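Deliverable D5.2: sample structural annotation.
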Amino acid sequence: MLLIDSDNEEFQLFDSRPLNKRDNERTSFNSITINQYINKKMTSKTNHLWGGRFNEPTDEFVKIFGASVTFDKVLAFYDIQGSEAHATMLSEIGVLTKDELKQILDGLASIKDEISKGQFEWSIDLEDVHMNIEARLTEICGLPGKKLHTGRSRNDQVATDMRLYLRDQVQTINNEILRLLNALLDLAEGEKSTIMPGFTHLQAAQPVSFGHHLLAYFEMFKRDYERLEDSYKRINTMPLGAAALAGTSYPIKRERTAELLGFDRICANSIDAVSDRDFTIEFCANASLIMMHLSRFSEELILWSSAQFNFVTLPDSFCTGSSIMPQKKNPDVPELVRGKTGRVNGNLIALLTLMKGQPLAYNKDNQEDKEPLFDTVETLQACLRVFADMVPTIKANTETMRSSTLKGYTTATDLADYLVKKGMPFRDAHDVVGNAVAYAITQSKDLSELSLEELQSFDSTIEADIFDFISLEGSLNARNHLGGTAPEQVSLAIKAARNLLKGASS
């Protein structure tokens, strides 16, 4: 593996030089003068941003092993945003002159432009995104660039960058959830009178409206949206000013920096500010819940689109074929989403494990918090996007759904309820209906297909109106209460949901 160092030299992932050669490069501090020592340090490949304490350059493999710039450069624009606010605050308290502030802001703008155009040279020697940007800033504007880090540390800097990044991502993700919620409402509205079997234990249980079934997912994703909204206030809390862990001796104004960056509040404890990543873990926990709901929906779409169910048809654009079986139409999108749920769950476990054993305050372990977070964000956004695009294209096979509902004696509960209304205790009614179902099975008939005389043989109180109750439509319409499956209630639920979404999107 080859990488490029700051001097544009190629180097191997592993140092193949003999150990004795490496040892010969080391110089004893006691054998040289102070001036010789300083001169040697300035020309060595120690990191010039923190290398003053060190007597020898970092091992090449350790340099690669410890570098994070290959992935944390995702935070580059957020790092610049934080630096702009920090510099402005430093100028206001007199640490920077107005001219120095202008040079810094102009330099940061130039760096942002270089990154946008793909012209910025990232260096592993400089470890991370922060030091890469700071080094380039110093190249551009000299001494003012070196002053920028006054009153802050990489510890509070990275925590701030991650919060700036994550609050943007939460907003993007919630916009995708809103798209999915609206798609579900549109589909549910068109299918509010479509009858399908409702399942428990994956056994046909009672007739339900397909629209009502879809609204169950609406409720799940609505709660997901609310959880992300609630977590936003914990994400939007500013660590900057905590410095390494104890704060700084400079008269900084954290509240001013928070104002400039749009944070709602400031981390109240400097140690906590730099050491904990619970806001990242909370986001990933919320992401896992969203993916779990997407996975459940995916599982049903996979079953429903099979030849054995044939409840729905998915469009060709969201499916693929088989390399060997020409008749196949595979529901790849829901299958992939179902699979990616494990990936997101794994990232959550990784972050929980990362954090669980760390003493206060900051530890290098926390470098490992970024890749799981970035991966979760990207995966979740992609899954929500594809679902929001796919849901409007789902076609319900209404006749198949209806005929399937007639199997499994799904109106048996309605017959029991009918007998209870006639004065029979429910447990007795349960037994009567059980006998009626057993008889219907021997006749290969649904309960609604039995004659009045056959039904009356099980209880004499049954009258001719029974067929209004044990028909599919009768069963559906009977559950006309808040949260019920009656088409009228589905319409009311959709109306309430749309009003809710209007408030969320405004």
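Annotation notes: The beta strands are 2-4, 10-12, 195-200, 203-209, 237-238, 265-266, 312-313, 395-396. Residues 2-66 form one domain.
The annotation will be released with the project's public dataset once the embargo ends.
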